[in-house]
Amino acid sequence: MTTAFRAARRAARAEGAGDSGLSRLIELHAFNAAGDAAVAISLAGTIFFADPGGARGPVLLFLGLTMLPFAVVAPLLGPFLDRFSHGRRWAIGFTMAFRAFMCWMMADAVASNSVALYPTALGCLIASKAYGVARAATVPRLLPSDQTLVKANSRISLAGVIGGALSAPLAALAATAGGQWSLRYAFVVFAGATILAILLPAQADATAGEQPVGRRERFHLPNTIVFALRCNVGLRLLSGFLTMFMAFVLTQNPFENWNHDTTWLLGLVIGAAGLGNTIGIGLTSVLRKINPAVVVVVGLIADAIAAVCAALFYGLVACVALGLTIGIAQAMGKLALDATIQRDVPETHRTSAFARSETVLQLSWVIGGFLGVALPSGHPVVGLMLLAALIIGWTVFVLIGRRRDLPAPAGA
């Protein structure tokens, strides 16, 4: 265990991350993902797919609830964090401490079967999203001189995958004694993360050369970010659709010879998307030079092709391939979008830009999920064909919009 810990520390500090302070943020994000995994395991089955028979009402309620945190993060927390960007360590630390408190309250609510579970869970989710935008806005301040933003983001995300994977079994073990115990475990994790946040290097709070944000000043996203965001909208829409549509299809109309193994079948398809997400993060971390604009376009086109193939050759292999492709494209596309925002948005507006982009992406995922729930699960090929047509149309729209936004040649 000690050897593994030392190896992880060396990996986090590699390529100048130790000197710049990025390694501290990498370690912090691993704790964040570990806590999030514990919370997810604790609350599994309370709302989302609690009825294995496929009741759509609770799922639609879940989709609506996932948008509520962004109603707070985008218009309120983003601008607030921009105004107080000099206290980024304390802002991140507060999101961790708040989640620790919410986890303790949720544990009491679970133990007493209280309705307080729902507002505390919502508060925990809001703090999680606030951490995400604050952390993303901090990365450029801790970036090593010889490392790209895309690679730095991928290293942080990879640490999150590892942290979540290591924490999940521990949380599941604690949950065997009751859901409240895995939440108390999450409390301990977030309490530790609070200390790590406060111990981030002072450079995370540096504001040298930054201009204060005027009260009435408005910032319009550059075309590079609008383009990357539009591409990611398509990627997220596909992800939301796949999660919801295939969940209902595979539980109610499984493939031949899989009638009694629908849980494993669903795990293969949805798990392929999770595996693809990890592969995408790993690829981005390994590749030395990455053009964010190319990454988002290739990801969108790859998803369109995979959707067409899944509709034409509907079956287990095609659906697993679709899930894998969607996972890879979504991970790489999101990392490329984050790098574009970090590169092209001034520090004084960066947190607000991240909050706005996260809101748009979550809305896209929810719309995709609504489509997946609304379409009849008895005709999966028809649903996949409609999805393929939608994503092809969106790809054409994005590429045409990109050409229109390009500057005219000199002398034109």
Automatic annotation (TrEMBL):
Single GO MF annotation: transmembrane transporter activity
Listed InterPro entries: MFS, MFS_trans_sf
Source organism per UniProt: Nocardioides marmoriginsengisoli
Record's keyword annotation contains Transmembrane helix: yes
Highest taxon of the lineage: Bacteria
Name assigned to this protein: MFS transporter
Subcellular location: Cell membrane
GO cellular component terms, semicolon-separated: plasma membrane
Residues annotated as transmembrane: 30-50, 56-78, 155-177, 183-204, 225-250, 262-287, 294-314, 381-400
Keywords: Cell membrane, Membrane, Transmembrane, Transmembrane helix
Pfam families tied to this protein: MFS_1
Main location: membrane
Membrane-protein topology: Multi-pass membrane protein
